[in-house]
């Protein structure tokens, strides 16, 4: 058998691959040449066909049959096809498998092509390239999740991340440093990232891309050139100058330019209705690196699900756009106390105005996804149902505003955040939206099909010509019904008049009944058209005339409907900014009311966020663990936590000890989550929280806890720890959970010790340090702002009871043996372990050698002054911690000391 030809072979064999191909295949080659790295969905009638390697790849990925169509260069052409009506499901699968798909449509009716001559081929063109970041169909999108396309660029040492959510038109831009790319990207969770190919090989960029996930699309670096980017951006927004967007940095322009370039190619010239870029800098949002984000399970759990995440625990929104906005806020907590307070004001107001909140939530439930509907319309992929979403959305907007007006009490003015949302929703303030609402309300019919070409959606009385054409069509249908009765009576044959797309109207009867119709005199009236197994089909002159009339009227009616749809679509784009603002306003109300709902459910309170370095949590709880503990029928123990970066109102660093399972990890994370919630503008599950804004949040878990992820090694743990020690500032919050556990005891202790000292002395950040090295308890006496905390357990009748209560002082012992007993280790083994433990404890004594250790502060003070790297720093840098034995680690510490002047 011949091996199938492939376009690659063909192009290497002949300079023009299309030479010798049939006209249709020549069209395919042309489309494929323009999109070599995408699968081409080539429209042929009711199917999208794939050819050559595309067919082989798609058949394998989709499990569809591989066939062949004709020959090329004497070899069969492999082909696979998917029906157009089911294309979405196949597309979604291919995208998830990492393919790009170029959709090549028929650009005219086959009848149209015929007019140019019997041999002419239907015109086809690529109308869109489907990539993970450019999806707009509801069937391909997660309604409650964002789908962002991001781009990164670096220029003159500064970096930027731009992103667009094509399905809603939201554009964002974040200026950062190369080192900040990982955090910035992770906050967006993009499904596709555009990278100039020059940056692709950069190690830091590569690591950031890997950590952020998503489909990485390298683009020619030339596309990120400043002047080309600027020109493309202006085209994208249809503006003469970018000044209206504020002072964009070179890197920001480049990143946005890459997005513009990608949209131009993938959308084949059709542009979405985009909002101006919303800009943020590093000074605006809390930096949370990918490892911290993952370990705190903010938006998803370590296993990748939404359930069990912080987001899932607090999300009480009732609309998909609201859910997306809440996720976006939680992903990027703010730094400005005033901005945070504005959000908290809204939540607080909805907490106080319960009835108002319930009525609002009822109204919101009926609200569709206006932003996504609008975006589809703008891209020419929308249908009457999307117009329906806009109409219903605008009507709901009015109802929402009405809710607030009717119960309006001048004494309880809603705060600015709510008032501004209501202003955006108030159609009386937006004449254009009001007019558009009226247009759709009176113009759209009750039944709305997905596609404009399905017809029947323009209401009666909107266009007189349409009503006329429809009346003609319907009248003629009535005449057909009369004709059927008359023909049956006259001929004495039991016949029916039916309709299909190929024959139009026809007379049908059984083969037996048809016999007299094919003989005189009836054959003068009935003209034979088709004989099937059991039926015979005829037409008559009268029926053919009626058929033509009906077809014409229907065609005319549909043409008018499509024309009307196009006009309404264009009108939607005219008011796009207003519609987007209304959609966003409704989402903001949904978020604030949803957070109030959650606050009431779980008894959360309003945090106080200021510019101090305080962290004072009173009776706080972990929202996710609490829910789990409660489901199991237990009570959750609230805990206080008091820290102060300045060391005044509390310790800067708390060393947290306690037996396994006592609640150390829960306590640590709970406090980190409080900071995220508070700065995102959410209430917090605590009696009270006072928080000085946290600029960077770090959370690391010792390697042992992370084995489930299968990739966390001790090395990775140390790399991540190093990142904290170099990046944490006095405004940061650091959570270290059993760092150093992944190596031998003395190694681990030495590292834990040194890290704790460095955090306290050099980074001077607020920190919680959970450890099973009880030796670290002595740091309380050695360092000014360190305190011991422990999670209590007690033995009772030989059993161990966890109180989950955090209190001052170190844990007295680790109760490891008791935990082993709880876990069901056989009694003989437990008894033996007790023996061994007693012996070890008797022999060990106090770790005197550690108490002799020179003070870290004294050591560092002399290193701090000269700016360049000191001998100590150099020596520290050169240490291969991972390759050291415990003995070598201690030696190294002494050597470091010896280097001091
Ligand atoms: P550790 O890190 O000390 O080993 P964890 O934080 O993993 O302990 O907690 C172990 C379990 O104890 C949790 O899964 C949870 O079920 C329970 N727990 C933790 N903290 C509390 C608390 N404050 N109140 C009630 N149960 C808790
Ligand atoms: Mg733990």
From TrEMBL:
A molecular function (GO) term: ATP-dependent DNA damage sensor activity
Record's GO cellular component terms: cytosol
Residue positions binding ATP: 658-665
UniProt keyword list: ATP-binding, DNA damage, DNA repair, DNA-binding, Nucleotide-binding
Keyword DNA damage among record annotations: yes
Nucleotide-binding as UniProt keyword: yes
Domain DNA mismatch repair proteins mutS family: 732-748
GO biological process, one term: mismatch repair
HAMAP family: MutS (MF_00096)
Role of this protein: This protein is involved in the repair of mismatches in DNA. It is possible that it carries out the mismatch recognition step. This protein has a weak ATPase activity.
Family: Belongs to the DNA mismatch repair MutS family.
Name of the featured protein: DNA mismatch repair protein MutS
Species name: Phenylobacterium deserti
